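Predict both folds.
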Amino acid sequence: MKIATYIITAIALIILIFNVTKIDLEAPLENESYTAVITSIAAGCAILIATLIRVVRKIERMANK
């Protein structure tokens, strides 16, 4: 599970970087730029969730000791 969360984080980070480069700063909520904003937010959420899973697993291991 630990490796899977790192892989998910890496993929989400790649998607986030790619989509941030696609955002038109003059009109961020129009056409393709809107899609890039939404997918960037989704990638950020995926990174956050994967990090939370790693923290929860670490706390569980510490609690079981």
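Second protein follows, with its predicted structure tokens after the sequence.
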Amino acid sequence: MAWLVSFLTSLLGNALARVLTGAGLGLITGAALLPVVKSALQLIITKFGGIAGDIASVMLLSGFGEAMTMIGSAIVTKIGIDAAKVAVAKGAKK
């Protein structure tokens, strides 16, 4: 097995190590921030659970549900992009 590691190191240099380190940092950053976003969205849903049924119906007819989905998706996408930036920046530093 050691010969395989030395062969890959001579073939690829430390580029593979940089890629794997960057990918790991991106996964850790995303995994740490996504539960925070999910809990914030769950809090919003809980807060809106106490409104009257008529008002909720009007909000849903006006597209409030889709708007919340778009906002949540935008936040999750932003976190994913930032995690990828961290991964690339840390991988390029080595």
